[in-house]
């Protein structure tokens, strides 16, 4: 594949890709169609759900082709931690301070609504992806951070924030017992879900293909014309030929600037994840189904307990976040592990949880994946500025599972009804604007 900000060949194999769906390398037609109403670039969570909502009304299905550089769901969605875990309180304070109380509440409530919508969609479409409703936990090991979390939650309660009412807080006396994490100084718990993300998205994609969408895997888009032609068509270029399209949706997450150069505000960030098996688990298990241990600000892992008794654990940021930035920031190569993170997950369970010291764990698989981090920490959704007919749904900052679905639904409303962003139900902070494309900040 072309060098630059594009998906690479021979990606590491995540646990989720050990059971492949028949659609994995599907091509609906041997050749690409010459012309389409809509081309969607990317067959991950965002691209698939955009296609799903665009084909909801069986009487007005537009012609749609989904172009995917590698296999179906082979990007971040097929490589993540298997969590749909809304952020009810962690990102709130910063948003409130920078953008105001209403904006902060809007985002937190949107995350809760997404969790609900994901569960509903999976049930409605009878998707078998090991969906499990769990109690998730943020666990604080740093005393200062623990106190900060407590103050933040109390402030949220004083302000009447709806999502704060859904959070339980445990102080130093209870945190270790509730979470099972050694040395926990505080913990919060709240509703979340775990699932098999690849199974979720490939089954949804299969429904979309049955509705008539043309899926073309192993078909990287190398370029999209910088202007539309006289008839309003954009040219989408691939090594297998071009497609003229009235509308193009960029569901390309961390790779967006490869095909839409003005989106340098979305950075590819390489994350690490693993699957861990315990040969000798204790008889009495931790009650927490999923959790994030925070060791210090910006240093955390994340963990989902699977029904087969294994753990999916990701992060390893303590080994590389500040010391080895070049190994993860602006990196698109998920065919390699992050060198500084190699070996991190060995003994993770034993050193993290009370009662698991003799668990005899082995790290079954380690993989990497490319996330899309934005300069201001919010996704970019909506009309690409100054380019009539181009739309974006990308930049989910390693946290797309409780965001993507209703972003895709809102974007499709914009595309179908030609409505204003403010009528989509998507948080106002997510609207892509020329100003946001110029923003620079810290990742
Ligand atoms: C290791 C890791 C752990 C994570 N853990 C979690 C978690 O537990 N919870 C959570 O909420 N989020 C998590 N995330 C983030 C989450 O997976 C993403 O936010 C979400 O999946 C984004 O979906 P997407 O469709 O936007 O992106 P993707 O799934 O990356 O889809 C984009 C697709 O576009 C394709 N593409 C890109 N460029 C081109 C091109 N030029 N031509 C054709 N196709 C192209 C890619 O191949 C890819 O398939 C994690 C991510 C990683 C990598």
UniProtKB/TrEMBL annotation:
One of its GO terms (cellular component) is cytoplasm. Pfam families: DAO. InterPro entries: FAD-dep_OxRdtase (IPR006076), FAD/NAD-bd_sf (IPR036188). Residues 37-412 form the FAD dependent oxidoreductase domain. Coiled coil: none annotated. PANTHER family: FAD DEPENDENT OXIDOREDUCTASE DOMAIN-CONTAINING PROTEIN-RELATED, SARCOSINE DEHYDROGENASE-RELATED. This is FAD dependent oxidoreductase domain-containing protein.
